[in-house]
Write a structure and sequence with these properties.
The chain is mostly helical. The protein is built from 4 helices and no strands. It starts with a helix and ends with a helix.
């Protein structure tokens, strides 16, 4: 929508949008995604609280699926970080041992 209206998304606007999402949804990724989807679907330039669709607050199944995917990616990233750190520790120890053996006659 911003492209059509020729309103660029500046870094300041992006930062403000992220802050607004945090205010509206807290740490709940599914709610943030639902808010973004609502804004895109309705052609809004900003983010606003989820609107009531007559049967309660809108639930966006795709947002919940996306939030689960994001959570899995975060968990995988954390696991990869742990594995990398362990591997780095082992390599460092192995290098130190080799250097110690080279110095010691």
């Amino acid at each position: 929508m911003r492209k059509v209206s020729k309103k660029a998304f500046t870094n300041a606007a992006l930062t403000h949008t992220f802050r607004e999402l945090d205010k509206l949804a807290g740490a709940e990724d599914a709610a943030k995604i639902a808010i973004l989807n609502q804004s895109v679907q309705r052609g809004w330039l900003g983010v606003f609280s989820l609107k009531d669709n007559g049967a309660g607050v809108q639930r966006d199944p795709s947002a919940e699926i996306e939030a689960q995917r994001v959570a899995r990616i975060k968990a995988d990233g954390e696991e990869m970080s742990r594995k990398y750190e362990e591997l780095r520790r082992r390599e460092t120890t192995a290098i130190r041992e080799k250097m110690k053996n080279m110095v010691t006659p």
